[in-house]
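User: I'm putting together a small comparison set for a docking exercise, and I want a reference complex before I start. The sequence is below, and the ligand is NAP. Could you produce the 3D structure with the ligand included, as structure tokens?
Assistant: Of course. I'll restate your input first, then give the structure tokens for the complex.
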Amino acid sequence: MKVVVLGATGATGRLVVAQLLDSGCQVTALVRNLSVLEAHAHLQQVKETALSMENEQLESLLADSDALVCCLGHNLTLQGVYGAPRMLVRDSLQRVASLLSVKREQPLKIALMSSTGVRNVLLKESVSSLERSINVLLRWLLPPHRDNERAAQFLQRQGSRHHALQWVMVRPDTLIDRAEVSEYSWHSSPTRSALFNAGETSRINVAHTLCQLVLDDSLWQQWQSKTPVIYNVE
Ligand SMILES: NC(=O)c1ccc[n+]([C@@H]2O[C@H](COP(=O)([O-])OP(=O)(O)OC[C@H]3O[C@@H](n4cnc5c(N)ncnc54)[C@H](OP(=O)(O)O)[C@@H]3O)[C@@H](O)[C@H]2O)c1
């Protein structure tokens, strides 16, 4: 299987690349820095982003790929949070979608790493009025939160309109680092408050979820067009 990874040099993206390579995938990582990932016979690193790559080059990479895993996130610096590209995740997905050929034999599977802070509006997930007010504030104060919400809206709008892509958006809670994959639970919607009673999700479990989704077709069918929430099981 051929998989493109966006955000491959990030804390979660690196784990995704390692797990995909362990599973025998051919991985193409779009990176800004070529010295982060270890060389591997099945890993091709391209010093480009989904926003900087020439149309023709990105189009042919996507045409030759089965899946794309997106672990992009804004760097926690002033420039990363408030500078361009403010809608990094949404714009990257939009560009990918715009360059997919309608003649593809199989749709591109897009697995997106998002957050429990992003509500699934189609499921009418409810939050307390205090949480709703804080979310409104966060949306305006923190462009990365708004970006994650817009990316979700973008994918949900694709629905059945875009036959060249399918998607799953994985929502972890507070990210922690663990060395090994551990037991974790899947839910259609958050079972706890992301603001007042957050759970934990290890990055390695997020990577495991994203990789299993693209590798296991029955798991993909189960969650396609859905926004699973995953929590570590204590
Ligand atoms: N913090 C939490 O508790 C939490 C909880 C749930 C979900 N999340 C979400 O998890 C996601 C990723 O988490 P993480 O910790 O794995 O992130 P991370 O380590 O910060 O990795 C972010 C990745 O995005 C890339 N990137 C940043 N700005 C870019 C740009 N302008 N153009 C191209 N690539 C760019 C980075 O590239 P470089 O290596 O070149 O910088 C890196 O590969 C984020 O969307 C975040 O919102 C976070």
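The chain has a mean pLDDT of 95. The helical segments are 13-22, 55-63, 78-82, 88-98, 129-141, 143-158, 203-215, 217-223.
User: Thanks, that's exactly what I needed.
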